[in-house]
Design a protein that fits this description.
Layout: E1 22-25, H1 29-41, E2 46-49, H2 52-61, E3 66-70, H3 78-88, E4 93-98, H4 104-111, E5 116-119, H5 124-134
Parallel strand pairs: 1-2, 1-3, 3-4, 4-5
């Protein structure tokens, strides 16, 4: 099992080439950039943004193949973003990542919106497996 280290050096935002991409949403710059680099290196072009509002604005112009979002963010959090995206794009694949300990009832609630809920620190192999499966 490979885990992302919070000490990983950040990478610049990937703008994509207009083709299919994964949208990554997290207010933690270092964690977001580490996951974006992991996805890009694994052949999943990634655009990363720091807020739920930025993600919705981007989706006005380009719809991603998959969205990965953190749960706890200021403003529009991951749960609210997931609901908005699920309403706008019912077939869009959604993955939630969180550092919070989730009780069973909250986890069940999240699973009504998200295709996958993963814990931080992110298990890279599991994340890539789920991205490969959901981003088809």
């Amino acid at each position: 099992m490979t885990l992302l280290s919070p000490l990983t050096q950040p990478a610049p935002m990937t703008s994509g080439s207009g083709g299919p991409f994964v949208l990554l949403v997290d207010d933690d710059d270092i964690g977001r950039e580490s996951i974006a680099r992991l996805l890009d290196h694994a052949g999943h072009p990634c655009v990363d943004v720091g807020s739920g509002r930025e993600a919705l604005d981007l989706c006005d112009d380009r719809c991603p193949r998959l969205v990965i979002t953190d749960l706890c963010m200021p403003g529009l959090d991951g749960q609210g973003l997931g609901r908005c995206l699920r309403d706008r794009f019912p077939g869009l694949a959604l993955i939630l990542i969180t550092a919070q300990n989730l009780d069973e009832s909250f986890l069940l609630e999240l699973q009504t919106t998200f295709d996958e809920v993963l814990s931080k620190p992110v298990d890279c192999d599991r994340l890539l497996d789920r991205v490969s499966h959901l981003a088809l």
